[in-house]
Amino acid sequence: MRSRFKYMRPGAVREAVEMQTACGSGGHYLAGGTDLYLDWKNGYPIDCCIDISHLHELDYLHTQAGSLRIGALTSLRRLEANPGTDYASRALADMARVMCTPQTRTLATVGGNLCNASPAADLTPLLICLDATLTVLGREGQRTLPINDLCSGPKSTTLDPSELLVEVEVRLRPRAVAAFRRATRTALDIALVIVSVLVSTDDHQVINAARIGLGSVAPVPVRAEEAEAPLLGVPLADIDSELLEDVAARAAACAQPIDDARTSAAYRSNATATLTYRALSEAIAGLRAKDGVR
Q1: Whether 213 contacts 121, CB under 8 Å
Q2: What was the pLDDT predicted at 261?
Q3: Is 16 exposed, middle or buried (CB count within 10 Å of its CB: 0-12, 13-18, 19+)?
Q4: At a CB cut-off of 8 Å and minimum separation 6, what does 11 contact?
Q5: Using one digit for the tens of pLDDT, what is the confidence trace for 199-209?
Q6: CA nearest 112: which of 211, 191, 38, 26?
Q7: How many Å apart are CA 92 and CA 201, to the nearest integer?
Q8: Rounded to an integer, what is the distance from CA 279 to the centroid of its chain?
Q9: Could you give all domains of the chain from N- to C-terminal order, each with its CATH number?
C-alpha cells in the first residue's frame, strides 16, 4: 500500500537540507524520481518528499582547472551529450548512453544513481576508477568524501539522512584511458556484471596508476585493488595477454557474487574475469595509440 506523504519544495539547497533535518529519517530528496517513485509504489514509507529537481544550481557539467565537475542534478542525458574530449568525459558519456531508455535518461540524475546505492549502479564503478570525490551538504555543514566510502550496503549509504550530494569531482590525469564492459540480458537491462578500468602512464610510458571497479558482483560496488597491483611499474610495451589474464583472474577473486533470479554466482565470477580482460585490453590499446607504443 502506498503511503501518504508531505510534499515540500525548497527554494535553495540549504533550505532543502533544513527541511530534511526537520523531517528526520522519513524525509527523502526527490531528484529525477526514477528510483524513488518505484520505491514508493512498492510500499516504501515516505513521510516527506523534498523536491529538489528544480534547483538549477546543482545542474552543471564543466571542466575547470584540471577537474571535471558534475552537479548532482545533472541528468544522464546531459552526461551522454557532454562534448568534453578528456578521458573521463568520454567514458562517462559512453556509460550514460547504455543506461536505461532515452526517455529515462532525461529524468535520471547522476546524484540519484549514486545515492540510490544499488549494487548494480552503472556509474559508481566507473567513478571509483576515476577517483571521484563527492561533496555533500548536511545539517553539520559541508564535507567531502571519496566515492569508495559512499555505499555501506545494498540501497544504503554512509551519508547522514540530512546530507545531500551536491557535486562529483574528478581530477584529471595527464595520460590516462578509462574503459568499461557490461554484461546484460537485453540492451536496456540492469547489468549482471559491470567492470570499469583506468590505466595511466608517466612520461616514460610506464604504468603509474591502475584502477578496476566492479559492480553487480558484491553487496556494494568495489575496487579490486589486489588485481591492480601487477600492472604498476610495468612499461606499456611489456603488457601482454598473460599479464592481463592474471589481472583478470585476480579481479574475479575480488568479487563476492551471489545466485539470484537474473543469473548465477558462477556466471558472474566468470564474466568478471572476461570483462576485466576486455576492458583492460581496450584501455591499453588506447594508451599505446596515444603514446605511439606498439
Answers
A1: no
A2: 87
A3: buried
A4: none
A5: 999 999 999 99
A6: 38
A7: 20
A8: 16
A9: 6-51 (3.30.43), 56-171 (3.30.465.10), 176-291 (3.30.390.50)
